[in-house]
Amino acid sequence: MHQFLAQLLSAAPPQGSPSLTPDQAGRTAALIVIVFLIGFFAVVTLIVIALMRRRARSAELRGTQRQQKPAAHVSAWEEAGRRAQAPPAEDLNDTRLGMELQPAPRSGRNRPRALVTGSSRRVGRAIAIELARAGCDVDFTYHASASEAETLAHELAQAGCDCSFFQLDLADAGAVEAFARERAETLGRLDVLIHNAATYEPSPLDELTADTCRRQYVVNALAPLLLSARLAPLLRESTLEGGGSIVALADMHAMGRPRRGFAAYAMSKAALVEMVQSLARDLAPEVRVNAVAPGVVAWPESGFESDPEAQAKYLRRVPLGRAGTPEEAARAVCWLALAATYTTGEVLRVDGGRWLT
Q1: Is the pTM for the entire model greater than 0.70?
Q2: Domain 76-356 falls in which CATH fold?
């Protein structure tokens, strides 16, 4: 290039102008090359900067569009479901379970996704936290405890968990059916389904009504069956070791240890246990179906068993001498859901030995 330019410059000088010496031609050629290279790299740099700015602007616009998604494109359940946004860390001092949730590791689309019913309080809340600790993204439902549901969702989001929560009345079979079908179409992925929500109320024979029996059956047995059936296709596609998983919260007293005055409740929970064992066959080998059957892991907040004397009487028949905790039940649920890869159709009692007495 150097020699070519030198020859070009010295080959035909303009008339009346002095010809360039070889050294002058070489210096001129070098200068031209340097100017050309500087201009070339300047143009390339400007193009790269423009492309980077355009990409950043596109990402910003996509984020804005997601946040301002037109209502016309949001389904009824998507609108009802509320995605959790992480608040400032100083707002997350809720320690009602005596637990400090550490951020779960992120791994993009490889994170398992769980759906838990009735998770705003008590055992359901502990289950959601335990699943998040294990690295799951968590969706959950609640019935009436909206503020507590928001608190839990914010805590999960702060820990790095992708979380949505939905108001759902499990006593309304039609609403359950609609919710299940909608989630089956929009979720995209589901690995774990936890049937935690339940209604627990006495039904003395002299006060028994058809509505009481019907409500307990729908909430405790029919709703879990509908959710399991509609969401089974997603669970079958799970890539977890051992496949998808369903875990139901049963009751050890509905397994041959009946309590006086709770016939309707016991019947509904016995039906739930039969559902677990039936679905364990129907959904095998892609989906495992199990249950945890607590004794007492959270005392009722009202009624006879909220009385300390009644609680002490119950505990005298528990070999371990104490009530369980929501966290202990949650750990059993999480083990069955994620780690017990060769277990299906099983009912795990978490009752401090109460079954033995």
Answers
A1: yes
A2: Rossmann fold (3.40.50)
What are the C-alpha distances in Å from 124 to residues 98, 115, 128, 304?
Answer: 15, 11, 6, 22
Q: Is residue 115 helix, strand or coil?
A: strand
Residues 284 and 245: their CA atoms lie apart, in Å, by 10
Please state the domain extents for the chain: 2-6+21-63, 76-356
Q: Is the dihedral of CA 242, 180, 249, 137 positive or negative?
A: positive
Q: Which amino acid is at 203?
A: S
Active site residues: 122, 251, 265
Q: State the burial class of residue 308 (Cβ atoms within 10 Å of its Cβ: 0-12, 13-18, 19+).
A: exposed
Q: Name residue 268's amino acid.
A: S
Count other C-beta atoms under 10 Å from residue 269's C-beta.
Answer: 27
Q: Tens digits of per-residue pLDDT, 259-304?
A: 899 999 999 999 999 999 999 999 999 999 999 999 999 888 877 7
Q: Which tens digits make up the pLDDT trace of 126-158?
A: 999 999 999 999 999 999 989 999 999 999 999
Q: How far apart, in Å, do the first and last CA atoms of the chain sit?
A: 99
